[in-house]
Amino acid sequence: MSKNKRKTAAALLLAAVMALGSIPVFGAGTFSDMDGSPYEDAVENLVSQGIINGYEDGTFRPQNTITRAEVCVVTTKAMAPGEQKLNEARMNGFPDVHSGYDWAKKYINYASAMGVIDGYPNGTFKPAGNVTYNELSAMVLKGMGYRQSELAGSWPLNFRNKALELGLYDGIYENMTKTQVAQMNYDAAATRGDAVLMITAGLSKLRERGKEALPGPDSHAYDDGSYHWIDGLPSSLSIKEAVDIMQHQGYLAEMAELNRKADEATAKGYADNVKTLKDGLDLLKVVDPETAMAMNKQGITKGNYEIAKLQKQFANDNIENNYRAELNSIEYQTVTLYYGVLQAQENLRVAEDNLAVQEEMLKNVQAKNKVGMAPNIEVTSQQNQVTSARQAVKDAKSAAENAKMNFNLLLGYSVTDNVALKDGLTPLPFPEMTLEEAISSAVANRLDNAQIEYAYELASVAMKYLRAGKKSTAYLTQENQLKQMELQLNNMPKTLEIEIRNDYIDLTAKYQAIQDAQEKLTLVKESFRAAKVMYDVGMNTLADVQSAQLTLYQTNQLLMKSIADYDIAVYEYEYATGLGKKRISF
């Protein structure tokens, strides 16, 4: 793989040194607050490289804190990815990185895509929050190529302990008393000066290994085998990691983000309409009857005002729900392809195992044939079995390669990249929610149900404020529409109940299919073993052994398919009992 297509983890560390200001660089000698400071040498070193900045008043302010958004901006600027790559970086998906952070958004996108920073469990980024020592050490270590999955323990001790082991805190501790070190609060905001010391320590560790952090992420200066990139994407993926990539990067993620922005624009339009109608209704109170009538004809009515309020409220309530439903759809597509690759790979493994068994059986038959214990026809028969097994391996290999190409294409890799899948083909836990709880959850959360309720409310308001005789076409049409909406509204819970009950039955059946296949596999393995033993002592024929092996081969394939079908059904069941995976209009 060429260097210009490998994303260097070391470059991320070098990038982190920019997390110390965004004002034009001043020489070390111009920092009035740095003379004799314990940070002076580290700051001077980094300033000389043009990768950290001071303030316009000529100070560096090493005791100041730095926000997460500022870290991302200057870190990404140090990577020098260019405007094209910045603009192409996957959407970060953080709801609190809003329009007030337009100056930082594309940089946060890039830093998130490169794995330098993470959000919080609730999905936010907290751009105005100060970077803590725990977060700083994690960022530096990630820049050096370490990942949480590769470190012992859990957050934040895993990163902190690794940082301590590597001496990243040594420079910081030198400026503290033993008591201060013992009582250090690693969740406190890190200072600019301490950030310089830790980053410098990380760079020193890289240089000890003979690695130089090169500018930009398009070279791979650090690689100890623990972490690898393929064109900016990890070379091994869990299902969760694959889904995360898909939900934040590429065409589908961009469409989801654009749809969310479109929903926000629609909600704003409804809000503007509410204000316009409210102002118009206030004006109706003071204008003459003729003007009031003209305004009514233009739509300034109490009915339209109430409808607009409903539209505004429903839109605001469901912007994020729509986005989450679209993310569910992206997750489902990703999971389906991931399991498709897993199943294809397992089928290839089973086919290769079958070929090995068939070749072993051929050797056995040939040996028996040489001593007159097996006729020539059995040798020919087994040779045919080996030929068929080899073809089955070729077919399985082709299917596996095709599945991987489709998976790579979806996630933005080259179709020929060898992406390792971390998760195996194992059954997911059966959903804990009872059937009745699942039905209640679907009725309460499904967006299609919410949309019907919304349509009924709109029709009800339109009917309430309709100015038409009860025998008029307008009245009868509106009355009929309202009745249809009411019928759908009353029927929807029953429809959802039937859907969830059928899904539950299907899920239960697929779960049982795994148990059945596992039990059958145990029996079939024993039958095959017994058939071989009996053949060796002349108590059955080669055809019996071949039949037993074929059954074993088919049962293995059946088990793999059963697990894949069940696991995908678990995802579908969770969508069905939640928001669903389809957007709604409002």
Entry keywords:
mainly alpha, 586 residues, two-stranded parallel sheet, two-stranded antiparallel sheet, disordered N terminus, Outer membrane efflux proteins (OEP), 65% helix, 2 domains, 4 strands
Low-confidence stretches: 1-28, 211-232
Rounded to the nearest angstrom, the distance between the terminal CA atoms is 48 Å
What is the typical, i.e. mean, pLDDT? 84
**β-sheet strand percentage:** under 5%
Which CATH top level class of the largest domain fits? Mainly Alpha
| Corresponding CATH architecture of the largest domain | Up-down Bundle
CATH topology descriptor of the largest domain: Outer membrane efflux proteins (OEP)
Q: Any idea how many domains?
A: 2
Please compute the radius of gyration using only Cα atoms.
Answer: 33 Å
Broad structural category = mainly alpha
What is the helix/strand order? HHHHHHHHHHEEEHHHHHEHHHH
Reported for the largest beta sheet, the result is: 2 strands, antiparallel
Helix content: 55-70%
Side by side, the strands of the main sheet go 1-2
The geometry reads as: flat
Number of helices: 19
Would you identify the CATH H-level superfamily of the largest domain? Answer: Outer membrane efflux proteins (OEP)
Number of strands: 4
Give the oligomer, counting copies of the same chain as homo and different chains as hetero. single chain
